[in-house]
Design a protein that fits this description.
With 394 residues, the chain is an all-alpha fold. It is built from 13 helices and 4 strands. The chain has a two-stranded antiparallel sheet. It is globular and about 50 Å long.
Length: 394
C-alpha cells in the first residue's frame, strides 16, 4: 500500500509543534479566562483513578453489568479534548496538580485501546461514537508528541495508541462513498451517507497522524475530500449528511454554520477550497450566531426550524477559531475580538462554559472554549508532501 507521506498531496493542516494564543489576541483579556477555566477542569477529573473527563450526551450503551453507561468513544473523546485544553492553556502550566491530571489522562486514553467498546475489528452497526474517540485521541496524543512533553516511560505507549486510533479511524471509513459518520447501518451493502461535521475533523486527524509518520493510504483522505466537496450546496450551505450526489439547494445556512466552517477549512488546507469560502463560512457563523445560541443548553437534539442541536454550539466556535487563523493577519484581529465577545456572552458566572443540560458537560464546554481561545497561528501549518525523515550523516 502506498503511504500518504510518499505521494504528492497538497494538504495543509494546523500544525501542533508550537501552540500559543493567537498572536493578535489581547492576552490581558484572555489569560484570566484561561486561568479560571483551567482551575475548574482540574476539579472535575473522574472515573477509576480520576483519569478521565467523559463527554456526556443523551446516548448510552450497555456496560459490563448490562447497565446503561456513557459510551467509550465519548469518554476517550472528552478526555482527549480536555487534555488538549490543558496542554494549550498557559495557565498553571508548571503546577504539579495540572501535570499529574494530564499524565492520568494520557494513561487513560492509551489504555482505552484495549477496551472492547473501542475495538475497530468488531462492529455491530447502528449509532456508533467510537470515531469521535479515534479523532480526538489522535489529535491529543500527536499534540503531546509535537510539543515533546511526553515522559520517557510513556512515549512508546503513546506511539502505540496513535497507531491503534489511526487504524481504527481508517477502518470505519464509509464504504464506497468515503468520509465518516457516527450513525451507521448494520449492512455494509447499504452504506450510511457521510457527515461533513465528522469527515472534516477525521481528515485533519489522519493528516496529523501521517505528519507523525503513520502510514495511511492517500485514497482514504482523497475520498473524504471528495465527499466534503459534494456536501457543499450552491448556496454555500453544507448538508448534514451526503452520499454520492452533489448537495441540493434546500439546506439552510443558518443551521449549517458549524459544519460549513469545518468543511471549508479542511478543503482549503487541502488546496481544494479558497480563502473566500473560509471567510464566507466565518461571516455566516457570526450572522447566524443567534440560531446556535437559541439551542444552547436546551433539551432535545435537532429541533426545527434549522435543525440545530445544542452540542454543535462549541463545535462551531472551535472551527470558527481555526478558520480565523487561516485568514490574512490583517483581518484576524476583528474576528478574534468578535469570537471572544461571543464566548464571553455565554460564559457562566463561575467562569465555565456549557452547551448542554448536563452539569458534567461543563468540562467539555470549558475545554472547547479554551481551545477556541488558544488556536495555533497559520504559520504553524505544514505543507505536503512531507519529506521522509532521514538519519543524519555521522
Amino acid at each position: 500500500m502506498s503511504v500518504l507521506n510518499s505521494v504528492t498531496v497538497r494538504l495543509g493542516l494546523l500544525g501542533l509543534a508550537s501552540l500559543c494564543l493567537a498572536a493578535d489576541a489581547d492576552d490581558s483579556k484572555v489569560d484570566p479566562l484561561l486561568e479560571q477555566g483551567t482551575a475548574f477542569i482540574l476539579t472535575t477529573q473522574e472515573g477509576e483513578g480520576s483519569r478521565e473527563w467523559p463527554y456526556e450526551g443523551v446516548y448510552r450503551v450497555r456496560g459490563p453489568n448490562q447497565n446503561l453507561v456513557i459510551p467509550m468513544g465519548y469518554r476517550v473523546g472528552g478526555t482527549s479534548i480536555t487534555g488538549m485544553a490543558l496542554v494549550r492553556s498557559p495557565a498553571m502550566r508548571d503546577d504539579p496538580q495540572r501535570n499529574a491530571a494530564l499524565d492520568r489522562a494520557i494513561e487513560f486514553v492509551c489504555e482505552a485501546t484495549s477496551d472492547p467498546l473501542m475495538s475497530y475489528k468488531q462492529y455491530g452497526g447502528g449509532y456508533d461514537v467510537r470515531g469521535w474517540g479515534y479523532i480526538y485521541a489522535i489529535l491529543f496524543l500527536r499534540e503531546l508528541q509535537d510539543r515533546d512533553v511526553i515522559p520517557e516511560p510513556r512515549q512508546q505507549q503513546v506511539q502505540d495508541a496513535i497507531e491503534f486510533y489511526t487504524r481504527g479511524l481508517v477502518a470505519i471509513e464509509i464504504p464506497t462513498w468515503g468520509g465518516w459518520n457516527y450513525s451507521r447501518r448494520r449492512s455494509v451493502d447499504r452504506p450510511c451517507p457521510q457527515a461533513p461535521f465528522m469527515t472534516g475533523p477525521a481528515i485533519q486527524a489522519l493528516a496529523t497522524a501521517a505528519a507523525g509518520g503513520q502510514q495511511i493510504d492517500p485514497a482514504v483522505i482523497e475520498r473524504g475530500l471528495d465527499a466534503l466537496e459534494r456536501s457543499r450546496s450552491v448556496t454555500g450551505a453544507v448538508e448534514y449528511t451526503g452520499g454520492d450526489e452533489q448537495a441540493g439547494a434546500n439546506t439552510l445556512v443558518a443551521g449549517a454554520v458549524g459544519r460549513m466552517l469545518a468543511t471549508e477549512s479542511t478543503l482549503y488546507m487541502a488546496s481544494r477550497g479558497s480563502l473566500d469560502s473560509v471567510r464566507g463560512a466565518l461571516d455566516a457563523f457570526f450572522a447566524h450566531w443567534e440560531r446556535l445560541e437559541e439551542r444552547r443548553a436546551r433539551s432535545g437534539t435537532h429541533e426545527g426550524p434549522f435543525g440545530v442541536a445544542p452540542y454543535y454550539f462549541f463545535y462551531a466556535h472551535l472551527y470558527a477559531a481555526q478558520a480565523i487563523e487561516l485568514l490574512p493577519k490583517s483581518v484576524r484581529m476583528e474576528y478574534h475580538d468578535r469570537l471572544r465577545q461571543r464566548l464571553l456572552v455565554v460564559r457562566a458566572e463561575d467562569g465555565t462554559w456549557n452547551d448542554r443540560v448536563f452539569p458534567r458537560s461543563a468540562t467539555y464546554g470549558t475545554a472547547m472554549a479554551i481551545l477556541s481561545l488558544t488556536m495555533p497561528e497559520e504559520n504553524r501549518i505544514p505543507k505536503w508532501p512531507i519529506e521522509p525523515k532521514t538519519e543524519a550523516a555521522p
